[in-house]
Amino acid sequence: MKTIKRALMILLTAVITFTAAGCTGASDKKIVVGSKNYTENMVLGSIISQLIEEKTDLRVEYKENLGGTMVCYEALKNGQLDIYPEYTGTALTAQLKMDVINDADKVYDIVKEEFDRQFNIKWMKPFGLNNTYAVALPNDFAEKNGIVTVSDLVPFAGELVFGAEHEFFDRQDGYDGMVEAYGLEFSGDPVKMDIAMKYQATAQGRIHVTDAFSTDGQLITYDLKVLEDDKNFFPPYYAAPIIRKETLEKHPELESILNELSGRIDDQTMQQMNYKVESEGMSTREAAREFLKSEGLID
Predict the structure, then answer these.
(1) 297: which of 45, 254, 257, 281 is 20 to 30 A away, CA to CA?
(2) All domains of the chain, ordered by start, with CATH?
């Protein structure tokens, strides 16, 4: 009986050891990619996920639509995520708590260095798009009056109503700084509203000028003209994959794979992908896959 019990114990120990080893191997071969809770970031996260799936034998888990910036950032720091797409301006002001800087290269260099030093997080090369704030108004009004830059808007501002989401009025790079930098004097008090309402309000004529993200697909839907920020007031928000240093040390091949995306997604390309998802009903995965195929990055 003792011999049988001993044999069973040895067998059980072997099974447990094998299972534990198998679990460790599985986790080492799995990459978890995350995204924030809006279309553009979800498309970028899907691009990252599908590229890694195609180029490696790693198992990729994609956690789409996790939440805002701090949700993804904390998940990356504590190891729940390995990779997600982030923006240089957000990293500078939200995570590093630094003042706005308008030099795009300087911002990238700062966040790259400080994330590595403080958080053991590595920044890959930027995708190319700059999803910064912009000023937008109906395209027909802009064309009729030759308005191309924000400075061109100044002579017309007195007859136009400005409206935007509440957050735009509470930011360093928001309404007060913008009107001061450009000398804009709009008609009456600015209209504050929910972010989901501002484009509709522009189309309905309740407001005439609004803030926008430069890659927003709804700019196409509502035929809005994005004005050139000729005084470089708005800070850069270049997007790039960020990855845990520990993950990169385990899988160094990921750096060259992720950097294949460098410079391939400009503002117009991103805006079109956002439009296809938001206005044409394409899934984020489909939009990402279509892009990767068009660039010859996957078959």
Answers:
(1) 281
(2) 29-129+239-294 (3.40.190.10), 133-227 (3.40.190.120)
